[in-house]
Amino acid sequence: MLLLRLRLIVLYLCFSIVNSHAEDGRKLWLRYIKVSDQQALNRTIKTTSNHPVAQQAKQELDNYWKSTNLQLTINRKATNLKDGFRIQQNKNGLELIAQHAVGLLYGAYHLLNEQELGRDFSSYQIEEIPSFDIRILNHWDNLDRTVERGYAGYSLWKWEELPIQISPRYEEYARANASIGINATVLNNVNASPQILSSEYLNKVKVLADIFRKYGIKVYLSVNFSSPKVIGGLKDSDPLNKDVQHWWKHKIKEVYQLIPDFGGFLVKANSEGQPGPQDYGRTHADGANMLADEMKPYGGMIMWRAFVYNPTKEDRAKQAYQEFVPLDNQFRDNVIVQIKNGPVDFQPREPFTSLFGAMKNTAQMIEFQITQEYLGFSNHLVYLAPLFKETLDSDTYADGVGSTVAKITDGTLRKVQKSAIAGVANIGEDRNWTGHHFGQANWYAFGRLAWNHQLSSEEIADEWLRLTFSKEKEFVHTMSKLMIDSRETVVNYMMPMGLHHIFAFDHHYGPEPWGDRPSGRADWMPWYYHNANVNGIGFNRTISGSNAVGQYNEPLRTIYNNIDSCPENLLLWFHHVSWNHKMKSQRTLWDELCFYYDQGVQEVREFQRTWDQMEKYVDAERFNAVQSKLKIQSKDAVWWKDACLLYFQTFSRQPIPYSIERPIHELEEMKKIKLPLKHHN
Ligand code: BDP
Predict the structure, then answer these.
(1) Is-catalytic flag, 345?
(2) I want to staple 425 with a disulfide (CB 3.0 to 4.6 A). Which of 83, 137, 249, 613 is the partner?
(3) Domain end: 101, 128, 155, which one?
């Protein structure tokens, strides 16, 4: 009996030791270790500010700062700092200076991260000023807690428990965001339920806003343009109808009574079946301005989405430009047009949306997708900083050379009331927040680039790996390279050379280049995008085709229009190319296509080998989780390669080069695959 007990105790001890090393990812990149009593005695942290956000900054430092004395100062005159901060030496230690309390909070996290990264503070000096004023997450969370395009479990917002019961994750979420400089969040899906504006829900939203405020985060809501009719009982929602305006005025007043620092509304109107001002013969500007006028007295913003397209004969990639450019100059100054990075839809690779820069007198912001709707969900390891940077650094030439998307949107080239950048969140109820442990890196990278778009993808990967996993050089170096490569890898095995939108209908996970629904709209069908036939493959967007190239400024128009100068990684985006076209590699287009798909597969296999060698640096729990996700990714890559090559081969009628791995699937079998994945609207 005694022996058994002893055994049990030993077993329990072993289990707790192993367990203490296991990490489930819940702490994200915030794995700070508390100061000991002795360490706390050796330094003092002072601030004269009683602002709750400044107090929060102090609290974090009290808990984790080990290095030297710290003075936190608010200097109202330091206007150039905006939300940022300066850290400098003073005679007693370090001084952290900010214009606003929130700058102290950002400075506090900066210091704690620097401490984690092993910086020397003996002559430390730095100034950090954010690139964008509003750094906002867009949650596509529904009120029933499903998440549109969400792959990390149900929504964090437990609407049925609010406003009474408060999940500890609300504060953890706010803290994580603040630690990377995110200062705003849209709580609900752009396909918005009108109910979010009911008094019942607003009282729940208020509770979240109260928690987030302490971390400098403002709450925004997506609104349904038909709300006056649906929940207000009005006969319509025409923006020029006085009753409708009155309804919004009162609703907005109610919102601000509950949430005095409410950020504003995000609106998806007249897009994919959502209601909007065009239902009443009005324009996007009429709709946006009506809301903006009612918001104005409170300082609220209207983020109006440009993701609009109709099933017409017109190339989908041209439609946002066509609808919005004529409205330039008509929007109020508290309206900002929110434009997706690419003209079609968050594909593995797209050129930047031609609308950036094209409206000279309208504030514009970029919308990225952090959640991997078209990038293998939370199953594939795809680090998105290179994708984000590729768009931000693209030159639009709108105001001459150097008019990058970043500079068009951040207020450098054109003064805006407030500059902004949005990312569609990949966060859910999963313990590790993002499903895939490496999904956390994309949340992190979005925040870091919103704070400073000059940072390189490598710098961000490096920081994140060290804060999240391990500081071992070998680990950081190897995994940083893998992360950087991962974006091109997914392009290779899914849609190389500018191919796009050849996904399975609706859920967008696997390949379905053959996809067709006789009843569905053409611009949701893969053939609409790849146009494969016996002559070749690709979408002709040149002057002889849809002329989408005409929406780009010179020299891009000419570069894209000409098959010889068009970058090969966008070739099939802009051109319909013959199977025998000679590529720069001297291969034919067909052989090159085979080569890229195969390369994608080989690269994921290499990721598996690399990860396995990292076992000694990573706790078992996270190691195993990533290892099994890589297996899925590897299988999926082969599936993509076989599906696309075998299908396109029916048009090219050419053999798959012998140097390339043979298909292991049958085309007819793959056509039968139907994944039981539901897409919740
Ligand atoms: C597409 C998604 C769809 C979204 C839409 C949007 O498939 O679920 O509602 O974008 O951004 O990418 O409005």
Answers:
(1) yes
(2) 137
(3) 128
- Which residue among 144, 161, 200, 272 is the active-site one? 272
Residue 46 has φ and ψ, to the nearest 5°, of: -125, 145
Assign 348 to helix, strand or coil: coil
Q: What is the mean pLDDT of each run of 10 residues along the chain (681 residues)?
A: 51 44 92 96 95 98 96 95 96 96 98 96 96 98 98 98 98 98 98 98 98 98 98 98 98 98 98 97 98 98 95 91 98 98 98 98 98 98 99 98 98 94 98 98 99 98 98 98 98 98 93 90 91 98 98 98 98 98 98 98 98 98 98 98 98 97 97 79 41
User: Which stretches within 402-472 are classed as H helix?
Assistant: 405-409, 439-451, 457-468
DSSP-based three-state secondary structure for 369: strand
Q: Are 55 and 201 members of one domain?
A: no
The atom of ligand 1 lying closest to the CA of 508 is: 7
In a domain, 288, yes or no: yes
- Sole residue written with tokens 């994750």: 169
Residue 661 domain-assigned? yes
Reading the block at residue 133, the tokens are 């004023």
Q: Which of 95, 293, 373, 592 is catalytic?
A: 373
Domain of 313? 134-455
Q: Is 373 a catalytic residue?
A: yes
**First CA to last CA distance, the chain:** 59
Q: What 3-state class would DSSP assign to 534?
A: coil
Contacts of 165 (CB under 8 A, 6+ apart): 158
Q: Are residues 354 and 220 in the same domain?
A: yes
**181 and 211 assigned to the same domain:** yes
Is 289 found in the same domain as 387?
yes
Q: Is 164 exposed, middle or buried (0-12, 13-18, 19+ CB in 10 A)?
A: exposed
Nearest CA to ligand 1 atom 11: 307
Paired residues of 141 in beta bridges: 147
| Cβ partners under 8 Å of residue 668, min gap 6 | none
Count helices and strands in the chain by DSSP H and E runs: 21, 15
Cα 122 to averaged position of ligand 1 atoms, centre (Å): 49
Rounded Cα gap, residues 462 and 29, in angstroms: 12
* Residue 435 to residue 65: CA distance in whole angstroms: 30
Is residue 624 situated within a structural domain? yes
**302 & 355 share domain:** yes
Q: CA 219, CA 443: separation in Å to the nearest integer?
A: 18
Contacts of 641 (CB under 8 A, 6+ apart): 493, 597, 598, 600, 601, 661, 663
Cα–Cα dist 677/514, whole Å: 19
**CATH number reported for the structural domain that contains residue 105 in this entry:** 3.30.379.10
Domain closes at, from 95, 128, 161: 128
Q: Reduce the DSSP state of residue 585 to 3 states and report it.
A: coil
Total Cβ atoms within 10 A of residue 403: 20
Pocket, ligand 1, Cβ cutoff 6 A: 148-149, 190-191, 268, 272, 307, 345-346, 373
Distance CA 179, CA 170 (A): 14
In a shared domain, residues 618 and 588: yes
| Domain presence at residue 479 | no
| Residue 217 Rama label (left phi>0; alpha psi -120 to 50; beta) | beta
Q: Give the number of domains in the chain.
A: 3
Residues 241 and 370 reside in one and the same domain: yes
| Beta-bridge partner residues of 420 | 134
CA of 638: how far to CAs of 182, 502, 606, in Å?
37, 16, 14
Distance of CA 514 to the CA centre of its chain: 29
Dihedral over Cα of 657, 658, 660, 664: its sign: positive
- Residue 282 and residue 170 share a domain: yes
